[in-house]
Amino acid sequence: MKVRNTMRVCTTLLAAMVAVAGCISVSAQGQNDSQRDHAVSADQLDHAVTPRQLRQDVQKAADTRQANEAAVREMFASDQAKETLKSAGIDYKQVDQAISQVNDEDLSRMAQRSHEVKNDFAAGRLGDRDLLIILLVAVAIILIIVAVR
């Protein structure tokens, strides 16, 4: 939860910095009045990435992370998953907090796997025992990733 809030704050600060940068005129100290009349604003400069595109990319990354966290949390939020965690002596809240600390790349892989597991279980390709094993392995991976960080 802390990481998600930190990410939101960083995203907001980055967007504010980009917006402020767009309002500042570029001028060198000590230029005479005629040179100041020809100052170029940051919006007029030719950039590889526009501030708008940067904001969109940052928002897209934040939205993707949020969706990935939701997918992984959904897998562990079921009654069967909570029972599995409880029988293994693992607190659901600990797993939930650890999900927030997993890096984007690992979180993306876990979200993809959680979708696959959900689809396989719904299609009957996985039994209860298989699902329990997958959940325990996923918890172990999350806890190892967090411990290594």
Structure description:
There is one protein chain. This protein has 149 residues and is mainly α. The chain has one domain. It has a two-stranded antiparallel ribbon. Helix 1 packs antiparallel against helix 3, helix 3 crosses helix 6 and helix 4 crosses helix 7. The two termini are 16 Å apart. About 20% of the residues have low confidence.
Q: How would you briefly describe this protein structure?
A:
The chain has 149 residues and is an all-alpha fold.
How is this fold's topology laid out?
Blueprint: H1 2-23, E1 25-26, H2 33-37, E2 40-41, H3 51-77, H4 79-87, H5 92-101, H6 104-122, H7 128-148
Antiparallel strand pairs: 1-2
Domain module tally = 1
Please mark out the parts with pLDDT under 50 across 5 or more consecutive residues, or reply none. 9-38
Shape estimate: elongated
Report the count of strand segments: 2
Strand-residue proportion: under 5%
Residues in helices, as a percent range? over 70%
| H/E element sequence | HEHEHHHHH
Summarize the main sheet.
Answer: 2 strands, antiparallel
How many angstroms separate the termini?
A: 16 Å
**Which structural class do the helices and strands define?**
mainly alpha
Question: Largest beta sheet: what is the strand line-up?
Answer: 1-2
Rg measurement, Å: 23 Å
How large is the count of helical segments? 7
pLDDT averaged over residues: 74
